[in-house]
Amino acid sequence: MALKEGITSSTPDRIELGPGILYANYENGTGTAIGATLGGGSFNLNRTKRYIMPDGAKGKMKGLGFVELVEATLQMNVLEVTKDNLVKFIAAANETAFSSAEAVGTGDGTTTIFALDASSDGVIEKVFIDGTEQTSGWTITGTSLAFTTAPTSGSVVTADYTYAGTPEDGDFYRLTGDTTIATADYLTNLALVLEYTGDATDGAILILDNPLAVGGFTLAIPTGQEEVIYPITWEAHFAAGSETTEPWQYLLPYNA
Question: Does 182 lie in the same domain as 80?
């Protein structure tokens, strides 16, 4: 008996290949690349349907079904860590510049007012003298730190504080969470562009509209020097006023 298979002369031009490139806010062939991934990922489209079952019906009837719930998600194992990526990985994340143990000055037993770095006009969180936190006895006015009692001669004054803008050398980006999800927390879209053997230019593109990272933020920390992977899942969301337009797209190149 002859073997049966679906291979045709067009098969080599109809294959999608990974790993693909993940973009945020993708439009007209370009966007912000998320970076390298490790371990692939998965696109999942769940369209839950409900059927009206009239009395006497023996089963689901044509014309009496409708889509009740649409859930489109994209899960990727991201390797590259940047501040911009972390903001996309954690829903409703806030970012600020943060300075830890910034050197403010050295006490002389007389001086009570110390000039802070010009960038420190944000929120002073902690003040230390010789590494010991001072929970009282100081105030902040503009970019000046004023002590009630002058630090002793030779003592080192440092501070932890946040400020707006880009961190200076040696400082950090600090991310914290907000319990309110704002419209600005949603990406415009998230696109995974896969190689398509029949079209070397465009590729096949999976798109989530209005995606937001969902689920927990979990990191498996290796015991050795293996790489840390960020397994992130984004979920698409309907746009207000477009309740009948499902928030996902699958762009497949036309290949005559």
Answer: yes
Residue 137 φ/ψ region, left for φ over 0, alpha for ψ in the -120 to 50 degree band, beta for the rest: left
66-80 pLDDT, tens per residue? 999 999 999 999 999
The strands making up 93-106's β-sheet, listed across from edge to edge, are 132-133, 123-129, 156-163, 93-106, 172-177
Tell whether 43 and 115 lie within a shared domain. no
Query: How confident is the prediction for the chain on average, in pLDDT?
Result: 91
> What are the tokens at 56?
């006497």
**pTM for this structure?**
0.83
Nearest alpha-carbon partner for 133 in 160, 97, 115: 160
Q: Are 248 and 208 in contact (CB under 8 A)?
A: yes
Q: Is residue 4, in this structure, part of any structural domain at all?
A: no
The rounded distance, in Å, linking the Cα atoms of 209 and 53 is: 33
Q: Range of 41's domain?
A: 11-92+178-251
Alpha helix segments (H runs only) across the chain = 83-89
Question: How many domains would you assign to the chain?
Answer: 2
Among residues 159, 176, 193, the one where a domain terminates is 176
Give the mean pLDDT of 217-237: 92
Q: Give me the count of residues in the chain.
A: 256
- What CATH number does the domain containing 227 carry? 2.30.110
